[in-house]
Amino acid sequence: xxxxxxxxxxxxxxxxxxxxxxxxxxxxxxxxxxxxxxxxxxxxxxxxxxxxxxxxxxxxxxxxxxxxxxxxxxxxxxxxxxxxxxxxxxxxxxxxxxxxxxxxxxxxxxxxxxxxxxxxxxxxxxxxxxxxxxxxxxxxxxxxxxxxxxxxxxxxxxxxxxxxxxxxxxxxxxxxxxxxxxxxxxxxxxxxxxxxxxxxxxxxxxxxxxxxxxxxxxxxxxxxxxxxxxxxxxxxxxxxxxxxxxxxxxxxxxxxxxxxxxxxxxxxxxxxxxxxxxxxxxxxxxxxxxxxxxxxxxxxxxxxxxxxxxxxxxxxxxxxxxxxxxxxxxxxxxxxxxxxxxxxxxxxxxxxxxxxxxxxxxxxxxxxxxxxxxxxxxxxxxxxxxxxxxxxxxxxxxxxx
Length: 401
Hints:
Layout: H1 2-15, E1 20-21, H2 25-42, H3 45-61, E2 74-75, E3 79-80, H4 91-103, H5 106-123, E4 125-128, E5 131-133, H6 148-163, H7 169-184, H8 209-212, H9 217-233, H10 237-252, H11 266-269, E6 273-274, H12 275-292, H13 299-314, E7 323-324, E8 330-332, H14 337-354, H15 357-372, E9 377-378, H16 386-400
Helix pairs in contact: 1-16, 2-3, 2-4, 2-14, 3-4, 4-5, 4-6, 6-7, 6-9, 7-10, 9-10, 9-12, 10-12, 12-13, 12-14, 14-15
């Protein structure tokens, strides 16, 4: 029956390929952050010119409301519609701010950054005294459904405040309030050190116990990475503790897993490794140590293991296979530009620290490929409409047989 399912999926995707997404915000800001890291590492003009090219795209795709949109329909527990700005995409603000810092382009970037901050101010919610959070997709629901949206907004806002040297009481209050919310939302287990965020907000009553118990380790380390940016320019004691605790918890998984899993339950992604997320464990740990100013036990060992694993199993000489089994067998071989942009950014940071010549050669190929496809391409996370609903229903029926 498993083979029948695989054949049906193959035939379906041959007839109905994944939707093509033009200028997914994640592809654009991850590519920009990577180019900026390479410019800082090499001071080469080509990386400056590439940064300039990508930042123009990012400015172009900023939504009229000041936010950023991932560029496709998808489920986050509810349906996000293409064209709606979401809180996780505020990494776009962080990337704009980083461009301003690296090239002292404050006057150029300020209007775009200010519009993004206006979006934050419009959509943030005061949860209680001194505690703030923001909905994942404010145009879909005003409820706080998941924690990570607040992380991405908090970090982007903190980086903006620090880099642009803003002395704004309202913004500082929101920044601190979001840190308060996130710190209070961390949990611990008896078996592992550190702390973690569940993926869904734990007060929710609309999902099953299994869904409520989901821990997403890849998103957790993406949160660590962006908080580490903010911590370097807008330091905060609670934020430093969050970074350290979240990092230590994910590192501790190495006792049980050869390579860091996506989540705490194989029911969610069939134990598959999605390299766009795995790479974030490495970059998150690199940034965490930078922001804390000290080494975290086991971090460098795990960073090296992940980089080696990705090069050995995911890299095919042109691009990275986006999904693999935990033992390194590709489960998807199609080129996914968004996935490559995430890996590109991580490896740029790794090169900045290691000056690894092999990684440098890979990065050149990866960037040129992303540019060749005009920062656009097929997206496996995108919802394909009713045809996908029908296909999922058929596969569920087969699974029951």
